Amino acid sequence: MANNIIRILSVLLNNVNIRKKLMISYFIMIIIPLGMFSMIIYGKISDNQKQQILYSALQSLNQAASYLNDRVNQTISVTDGLFYNKAIQEILSRNPAEYDNDTVLQIEDSGMLTSILSSFQQDKNIYRVRLYVRDGLLYSDENVNVFNITNVTNFPWYRKLLSSRERSLWNQPERFSDSDGNTVISLVRKFSNLNNLSETIGILRIDILEDNIKKIISNASISRQGIVYIKNSDGKIISCNDYDKIKSLSSDGNTPDIENKPTPEWENVNMNGKGFFIKMADIRNTDWVLISMIPAEDLTAISKQFGDYILILMLGIVLIAYFFAYLISNSSTKRIGQLVKSMEKLEQGNFEIKNNIIYGKDEIGRLMIKFNFLVRKIADMIQEQFIAGQKIKSAELKALQSQINPHFLYNTLDMINWAAAINQVPEIESTVQNLAKFYKLSLSKGKETIPIADEIEHIKVYLEIQNQRLENRIKLDLNIDEEIYEYSTIKIILQPIVENAILHGIMEKENNTGEIRISGKLDNSDIIISIHDDGIGMSEEKLQTLLTKEISSQNYGYGIKNINERIKLYYGSQYGLTYKSAVGEGTSVEVRIPAVRKSEDS
Questions:
Q1: Helix axes 426-443, 452-470, angle to 10 degrees
Q2: Which residues contact 34 (CB under 8 A, 6 or more apart)?
Q3: What residue spans define the domains of the chain?
Q4: How far apart are CA 26 and CA 32, in angstroms?
Q5: What pLDDT, in 10s, does the model give residues 117-140?
């Protein structure tokens, strides 16, 4: 059995050329080992990369938690400083009877409170210090730092604070919007009488900007789609780096259902069909938990990107290895193969010879040199015959051109003009003069480009000839900015458009009468010439094919495709014709060409 397999393989290999045999062996020795090695390396490095990302995310989370702890402790320290301030305690503990008929004392107390509270507010991390005092005082409605406590008695945080045994409370997700429109998160605290701790003499509230908290937690997100947020024991979000993303993961549009239980390792969870790696950190002296969520797809995206690098590297190694394998395998077979291909081309009448072949000095190289020499000799002889034939055709063309010399045409028209004048036939005389002028502008001494003024004159002469035939049924309305007359254009691009407008637009109307309006202006570095007729117009289907398909002279659009292609070939693809039309409403054509002055035109 094994002998039969070996015999079959030997027969198959005997029918394969040496180059293919070498390439197959290189494939077995290079691709398979390198592919297996790359897969192992990819798996190891991808796992290591994932662990490094999670480690970096953990460091960022811990750093953000540390910053938040500092910010919380700093805010609590401010409340302690105010709570134990002797002056504030004395003012808030004052018997209301002391204020009776003593306005000066109230003013002094108001100034003292404002001074103390505003001094604590100088801290850059403290946005606003607020003290809520009892009603009936002159300064209880100061509404800058001192407020009337009756204004907040219906607030949920106020009721929760009074019913709580805690001395202070971070407010629930209800956020306060101040007069500047800034969103704040507040620490509220009972202000008790130090001589009677059961007596609440005020409420202290310290506001910090939510944006400052958001900046801290945003720095903890190291992935593009990562989510970092703070939530309290009630599951309410305090701050988040991206509210839209966090709401999209929850069933009630508020916060994902995650227990506030920090774990030592990253936890892999699934939310709304998406996988996330989640890690939490407690914020001391609060009921807050800082949560970092990294989408699993971000980790796989990074691994995939690394895998792509490995694939590109492997392909590069394979290409380099195969390049050298190709050079080695072709060192003796390539020249023979090229010689065989050259002979096949010669059989088909192809005499092209590649001059970049390294012939060498062996028998194969000498044979190729001799073969190429003979082919070149044959090709040179054929080329000489071709050039001789071209010269003959060129001479015949020049002779034909000389026979249609424009001077002959002008002289003939001049002779007809004199005959019409002698015989007093002004209609013929006018027609011949216009016709001579028409062909003079058309020929333009063989120049490809002419002034725009000549192109406009060409249309006017053409319409004069047509109106002599059509009994002045065509009205021409010109509205050309004179400044564009000093620019040039390729010739005979407007007359065919006007001709089509007459023959297939106006003359198709019942009364065979109409108007053609032509306007021209500069548009930045371009010139736009618009031609509008009040003919029968055309359908959307015909309009779509007007500039893309060949149209016979019996249909609307004769010569239009040619004009459009001439403009694009001469000036560029951004220039050409634009058609707008509707059945029964006429047709508008916009011609766009670059603004090239006559002196610049070649």
A1: 150
A2: 314, 317, 318
A3: 17-332, 351-402, 447-594
A4: 10
A5: 888 888 888 888 999 998 888 888
